Fold ABC transporter related.
Amino acid sequence: MPEKIIEFNNVSKKYGRQPALSNINLTLPRGKIIGLVGPNGSGKSTILKLIAGLVHPSSGSVKVNGREANRRIASEVSYLSELDVLYSFYTVAETISFNAGQFADFDINKAQEMVSFMQLDPNMKVKNLSKGNRGRLKIILSLARRAPLILMDEPLSGLDPLVRDSIIQSLISYLDLKQQTLIMTTHEVAEVEPLLDTAVAVKNGQIRNISEIDDIRSQQGQSLIDWMKQHLL
Ligand SMILES: Nc1ncnc2c1ncn2[C@@H]1O[C@H](COP(=O)(O)OP(=O)(O)OP(=O)(O)O)[C@@H](O)[C@H]1O
């Protein structure tokens, strides 16, 4: 298995004429929690979608575990979309059974454990869940998979501070970093800072900097927000 789980080589991505990423080179280690940070429209979600094989590079190559990223790697990648992708007519329990049927690596016991950890009612219909509880359910579906790579696009967006805190706790408790790597995009920088191993600063479709959080703190004496200001303003 290659030491690096992700390799971008000279990757550019355009949507029509709109450039989203310009000539990116990026390698990311396995077994870490990695945060993609940067302003709106900088290209963070596009990086995740390229890794998930949901969009294709206009030029260059994206490799996951040494293999070209495409839709066939869906079985190795658990992708949490920014969009609300749950079926409103299912209950929480039915949503879990449905996902267990979709993915061979889905651990239904782990999902049920997380439902009680997050105090969700298994019999409640998705359409009646609060936004915070829908956010929790999406995290459960994503973390219940034994996929080596978990991608989360804005898992904390629009959620109140207590829900964000409970989601961060569940990430710490239920992620298996011996087997898994988590890459997330987020604007909730201060909250995720204690969780992250590595930060990647993205702006205008380019990688501006990559740093270990420990180095940002100990060598550079900065918080993640200070570091972002230094590299993104
Ligand atoms: N499907 C699409 N069609 C056209 N343009 C797109 C599409 N998706 C993204 N873009 C454009 O590509 C650029 C990068 O967008 P992307 O969503 O990757 O940024 P982001 O950093 O995730 O933004 P945000 O923080 O606002 O979610 C933006 O200019 C965006 O408008």
User: Anything to note?
Assistant: The chain is about 35% helix and 25% strand. The chain has one domain: 4-232. The CA atoms of residues 148 and 180 lie 4 Å apart.
